[in-house]
Design goal:
The protein is of the alpha+beta class and 308 residues long. The protein contains nine helices and 14 strands. The chain folds into two domains: 174 residues, no CATH class; 117 residues, Trna Endonuclease, Chain: A, domain 1 (3-Layer(aba) Sandwich), CATH 3.40.1350.10. 34% of the residues lie in helices and 25% in strands. Strand 3 and strand 4 form a beta hairpin. The termini are far apart. It comes from Arthrobacter methylotrophus. GO terms for molecular function: endonuclease activity.
């Protein structure tokens, strides 16, 4: 089963046209440093070997920045499999799509030295996307998955029979519009209104170079919804939205993400905490968290007012 990824080709897609013409996707992150000796050992070993290299190159960066960058680099070099589909955003608001056809190649002396060969097949406009997919592709990360949108993407990239996927994509989009608490709507609302929330008084969503990078923060077990840092920089906070998932699933997921943060991202003296957010009270979650003192449960309430 193939997976679809977005891979940004330079800032603002500046290198996209060159890469498409040459039949590649490419990323930078660590310059002319050959990563081939560190491939084939898994994402954890890759980060462990190259995080120190990144931090030596960029001494002002944090371990969070190193983990994010090296995680993206591993995904581009090895996490994306041959046969997977990639989308390259272009400056004209279109997305080129193609299939990855090779393993890692090292091209020192170029703007994007870490490359994979791609059979670029065609393009589609951002305007053709559903609002939910368009919101997902708006992430500022360099490499990220679009697995929840597989049916719609199969239609847009013309890689599947269009009839059933269109029906399923429309049904999914209708559900998203009718239920504010679902997936991207709540997540985006929290991010955009962060300073007005109770959590916003204690924490800031993780940013790097003035850009929000803590939304859908990538880990080796999937992206966490939100990563935040306490204002005194001593605590990292993992936030997961229940989104209708089974209670045991969301508790296990946040614990896995917190384990990733503890192992990969924490600086000396820092600790990791978690928050699960849901619309309704959930006795199963509260019971599970009663023996997990570093994870909180919070409910959200949406209020709607009309004024003359």
């Amino acid at each position: 089963m193939t997976t679809t990824y977005v891979v940004r080709q330079g800032t603002g897609g500046a290198n996209a046209l060159e890469m498409i013409e040459e039949g590649y996707l490419g990323v930078d992150f660590i310059g002319d440093h050959d990563v081939r000796p560190h491939l084939g050992k898994g994402a954890d070993a890759f980060r462990a070997a190259l995080n120190p290299v990144f931090l030596e190159m960029y001494p002002g960066k944090s371990r969070i920045a190193a983990g994010l960058s090296m995680g993206n680099l591993w995904a581009a070099c090895e996490g994306i499999l041959e046969g997977d589909v990639v989308l390259a955003p272009k400056p004209d608001r279109t997305y080129q799509y193609g299939t990855v056809t090779s393993g890692y190649e090292y091209h020192p002396g170029t703007a994007l030295p870490h490359r994979r060969r791609v059979d670029w097949k065609g393009s589609f406009s951002r305007d053709a996307m559903s609002p939910t997919l368009a919101s997902s592709t708006g992430s500022l990360m360099t490499v990220f998955q679009l697995a929840p949108h597989a049916d719609e993407l199969a239609v847009l990239t013309q890689l599947a029979d269009p009839v059933q996927p269109i029906v399923e994509a429309i049904a999914s989009e209708v559900q998203d519009r009718l239920a504010f608490q679902m997936e991207k709507q709540l997540e985006d609302f929290l991010v955009h209104n962060w300073r007005s929330t109770a959590l916003g008084r204690e924490y800031d969503i993780y940013e790097e170079d003035g850009q929000v990078k803590g939304q859908q923060f990538p880990t080796d077990t999937g992206p966490m919804d939100i990563l935040a840092v306490s204002k005194d920089r001593t605590r990292l906070l993992v936030i997961e939205l229940k989104r209708g998932r089974a209670s045991d699933v969301v508790v296990g997921q946040i614990q896995r993400y917190m384990g990733f943060v503890q192992e990969v991202l924490l600086e000396p003296g820092q600790t990791v905490e978690g928050v699960i957010i849901a619309q309704e009270d959930d006795q199963k979650i509260r019971r599970a968290l009663s023996v997990a003192q570093n994870i909180r449960f919070m409910r959200y309430r949406v209020e709607f007012h009309l004024e003359a």
